[in-house]
Specification:
Blueprint: H1 2-16, H2 21-28, H3 32-39, H4 47-57, E1 90-98, E2 103-110, E3 115-118, E4 126-133, E5 135-140, E6 143-148, E7 152-156, E8 161-164, E9 171-178, H5 181-185
Antiparallel strand pairs: 1-2, 2-9, 3-8, 4-7, 4-9, 5-6, 5-8
GO cellular component, one term: cytosol
Protein name: XRE family transcriptional regulator
GO molecular function, one term: DNA-binding transcription factor activity
Length: 187
């Protein structure tokens, strides 16, 4: 179950870094109460909350979704899980974080009318989006750009960005996140 993995991986990352819940809250922007609830398995975090946690630890998102977590760039993940957290954008891990390439890839799903706006990632993070089904829009540099099946886009993800589906059909896309080596070795 992915919530259990998140619970275990969050606590492991916090313990390995020698951080209190209060310090982790300062680092991630996620409240101490919410972090405690996640660690105790009392709350399932949204994808947006997980991004805040990953960014605060300078770790890839899959560090909290897969079987094992480390607080350096040598993270070793395991099996994918095709499940959306809460009511957020749907995702499935295609390629977990690979320290050789410094990237991870997800298959993302947007329901009709659904949108998701992301906070900026660490400095230097770049995303690739490749639409595999339907049509969607990507927010970058303050403008929404239409992408259809077969279209791709690369953009700086260290600024506000987002995804939306204004059509009546599901949209799916591959999302590859490229981390600069320094953002993974700072944690």
């Amino acid at each position: 179950m992915s919530e259990e993995k998140i619970q275990i991986n969050l606590k492991a990352a916090r313990m390995r870094a020698g951080l209190s819940l209060a310090r982790t809250a300062e680092m991630t922007g996620v409240s101490k109460a919410m972090l405690g609830q996640i660690e105790r398995g009392e709350s399932s975090p949204t994808l947006a909350t997980l991004w805040k946690i990953a960014k605060g630890f300078h770790l890839p998102l899959t560090a909290f979704l897969e079987d094992r977590v480390q607080t350096t760039g040598s993270f070793t993940p395991a099996l994918p899980h095709p499940k959306a957290l809460g009511a957020t954008i749907g995702y499935q891990t295609v390629f977990p974080f690979d320290p050789v390439f410094g990237s991870e890839t997800f298959l993302m799903t947007l329901e009709p009318g659904q949108s998701h706006v992301s906070e900026p990632h660490d400095s230097g993070v770049v995303e690739d989006v490749f639409v595999t089904r339907g049509a969607m829009e990507v927010l970058r540099d303050g403008d929404w750009q239409v992408l259809r099946s077969g279209d791709g886009l690369r953009f700086a993800a260290d600024q506000p960005h987002g995804y939306r589906n204004l059509t009546g059909e599901i949209a799916q896309f591959h999302n590859t996140i490229h981390y600069p080596r320094t953002s993974l070795s700072d944690g």
